[in-house]
Amino acid sequence: MGVGGDGGPIDGGGPLAEPVVTSYGTVWVPRVDKGLLCWLAKDARLVSCPVSVPEGHRGKLTVVADRPAFVDTTTDSVHPLGSAGLGEGVPMGVDVPTEVEVAPRDVDGRVAVLDPQAKRLVLVDAKPLTRSGRPEQPLIVPLAGGDYEGPASTGDAVALLDRSSNTVETYGGDGRQIARQQLPGEPADREQPLITGEDGRVYADGKRGDHVLVVDHDGKVADVDLTGANGDGERTAKDRTADRNVDRAPSRRPDRTDRERPRRQQEQPSASDRSVDDRPEGNVLPDPKPATPPGAPRDVSASPGNASAVVSWSPPRSTGGGAITGYRITWAGGSRTVSADATSARITGLTNGRSYVFTVAARNAAGLGTKANSRAVTPRAVPTVDVVSARQTGDREVTLTVRVDGGGDPNVTCRVTWQRNSAGRTMLCNAASNGGTATRQLVIGNLPPGSYTFYASGENRAGRGPRGRGATVQVIGPKLVLTKGEPTDEYCGDLPGCAWMHIEFTGFEPGSSVHLDPYSSDPDYDNPGATIVIDEDGTASTDRFAYAGTGHTVWVVATLPDGTKVKSNEMVW
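Predicted structure:
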């Protein structure tokens, strides 16, 4: 195994597959004849193989959040590596064939898997390897028909090479294509056409060695002419401009031999001279010492609550070469330290109405890392809503008077519930413009007759408040009651027993006009009826329709504005 530098090659003890490297210089490589995963620390000369791959399983190595991981294509899962062997796997959420290509490092927490058979790029969520939570669904990127190779990762983007069109394509961690650029001439003829340099960028060079496409960290691609405009090897102004466009790409491309598959040594050293321990048991993988404090946490945000806020973040891209040991959260008036696996924290004891900015920093053995801030948020109290009164104001309609205290927030949504059948409705009941107390009228319709107790609760940006005081009302449907009224001699002539029909109205729409028609069992009785206007309380009372048909059955019918008919009781005159 060639490791570069002045140390010369190191015997891996057997045939090896593609290695991966962490930022702190540890090399991990599969030993294919024994089913072992081996590692070599920076500047070390002894290869240790502490991890055994389960018998019959296939897969590839990668690096996630600067930690080694094994992509098991037999079980479609991703496992962290350590001195105890394979850690608990994270399901990939997609079925992939055993023969796929895996990027040597993650892309914003996702492992890039190239499935050449299905012509697709799969981005598998591996963030749960380094923090708590369930994995998100994998992102599937369909690829146009071509001969794809790769993938290679800059950490923020993944690059593929389509040999059929000599084109480099790059994609972000969200699966969206960033760039697509053709390489002049044919790609270099080697097993790994895409090489990741020490600067973290990806290089694809031409077969003649006169052009190189440089994939920057953000996935953008630049074409660099290595020969000069006149072809005589002299650098031109155009070349120097190209250099600036790729942020001073190194003049020396990564050595091709650094990425070639190592070959088995011609001569095996004796047992006393061997520099590899291929026994999976008894090897202890030491934690590398952190070189620097970690980078800034990502995606820091805060959500306000009642005298509180929930602060959330994602782990930093760089751990500084050492394991994260915790996070420190600071704000005006306080601070708090949480564990290394935390990605959120609830901060209490804040002052409602006061603005807060929260700062989060990761810590490792080297110290506290770069800080990152949330946007300013303002905690608020949850609202309180009381139902002061409830009265029937129409046919199956009740009007509630509610008192709303917004807790400092003028935007309050009320939810009204009633006890009769546990039903409920959500409606807007804003507080005063300053977030204080206001009285509002809420109308509830389509209520069958019966007794109701109404309650309400409110929700604002701080959350939902408790249920407030309630009020009870009896809902009465439209009802007509017919009785025999005062005697009269109008319209009856000399007929005996003449009297008015007395009609009582309750539960009708206030102010509405209804048409009232009298009826009798006498087939010869006919009356055009009359129009009655209902009072503001939904009631009315009238003496109409003089009648003298002793022994007849009589009743009245009211026709509402919508055509609904309400019949009274029947009585014998």
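Summary: The longest strand covers residues 384-394.
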